[in-house]
């Protein structure tokens, strides 16, 4: 199996990450592996608060699209993910955390 390396080692900027995500999604759709992605709150017009929090708090480490596509089966699962991100350096207020929990459990 060949190992593919992205130029500039493992340092991807936001645009490069988004390009990779779109490529993975297109590949999955082309191969019947997942169908259409879960619509993000911004696509439904109901997630402007979540979009703002994710853009401000999550987008510096990974693409906001990845966070917007995450769906938790429970508030506890969403809280666990948020706690993991905080342990890795994310900062969120109590209000922002509740906004994210609401978004992830819709």
Molecular structure report:
By secondary structure, the protein is mainly alpha-helical. It has a domain at 46-106. The protein has helices at 14-30, 41-44, 48-57, 64-69, 75-87, 94-104. The chain starts with 13 loop residues before the first helix and ends with a helix. The model is unreliable at 34-47 (pLDDT under 50).
Strand content: under 5%
Instruction: Sketch the topology as an H/E string, one letter per element.
Output: HHHHHH
Question: Structural class of the helices, strands and pairings?
Answer: mainly alpha
Kindly state the percentage of residues in helix. Answer: 55-70%
Q: Which spans have pLDDT < 50 for at least 5 consecutive residues? A: 34-47
Number of strands: 0
Distance between the termini: 39 Å
Q: What is the average of the pLDDT values?
A: 74
Major sheet attributes? none
Outline type: globular
Tally of separate helices? 6
Radius of gyration: 15 Å
Task: Summarize it.
The protein is an all-alpha fold and about 110 residues long. The chain has six helices and no strands. It has helices at about 15-30, 40-45, 50-55, 65-70, 75-85, 95-105.
Characteristic terms for this protein:
mainly alpha; 6 helices; 106 residues
SSE blueprint and pairings:
Layout (H helix, E strand, L loop, with lengths): L13 H17 L10 H4 L3 H10 L6 H6 L5 H13 L6 H11 L2
Helix pairs in contact: 3-6, 5-6
